[in-house]
Known about the structure:
about 140 residues, alpha/beta, Nucleotidyltransferase, domain 5, five-stranded mixed β-sheet, 4 helices
Amino acid sequence: MRALGVDLGTKRIGLATSDLSGTIASPHSTLVRSTSVRVDHASIARIVRDEEVELVVVGLPITMNGEHGPAARAAQREAALLGTVLVVPVIMFDERMTTVTADRALKEADIPASRRRQYVDRVAAAVMLQSWLDRGCPR
């Protein structure tokens, strides 16, 4: 099953895809937020169609102590809206520490700070999606 990982940010949306076997997640792209959530969701819908995605996994930014703060509630609202646009299921999965992990990996790869910003969101989406895959694709 091919899945799309989505890291919803306020300025950028990181995207990652799994391989067809649902084993390996890879960074896909980064969408710069437009002024319209509808436009952003239409862009995601195109990627879902073009990549033949069967399920979308949206990152849920739970706080380190396990609470659903304002960012988690905003992500839940947006994931629900996204679900009304897509023809595939949309689920949410814990994304704690994914951006930190992604930034650390990019630093270790000697990507300069000026270029890391271009990649960190899609790498964070891949980290989150890989974690979901490794846990057996829970729904």
